[in-house]
Amino acid sequence: xxxxxxxxxxxxxxxxxxxxxxxxxxxxAFNVFWLRRRHPGVVSGKLSDLAICxxxxxxxxxxxxxxxxxARLCGGRVGPRVGPRGIWLSCGxxxxxxxxxxxWPAFTGVHRALLGVLDAPFGGxxxxxxxxxxxxxxxxxxxxxSAWHLARVAEREDDRLRSSPSPP
Length: 168
Hints:
By secondary structure, this protein is mainly α.
């Protein structure tokens, strides 16, 4: 018995389920759990920042699409996905958050509080480190790549919707 691969068309947050997102998440995990501990240095210091700057806008768009889906299920009249403005907004929020984190030491407290809330469902109690280092801002080059990735996923979704037969 051969099973057909599951299609991800129409799934909220589909960009997060793309191989580029998996690659960024794998690079982040590899860096955090192995490279940084065994070979600390410039490469291990920047690798996480590069992965985070790619993944954060993708994560924000995915979260927004799941919220839109929930709103639709509750009877809201909203679209099924985030449009170009939402993509640019997620990228702008990501740039602002990362820039504050890397240039303003007082923002570390806000960052730790947010991560603590996000970590609570997984048991909490982890400690999060951050060093305000303006040289890490070089990782922001990944945000336009993330925007391009999100736009391409949205474009493919638009093409899919245009080519699918409309219901009678």
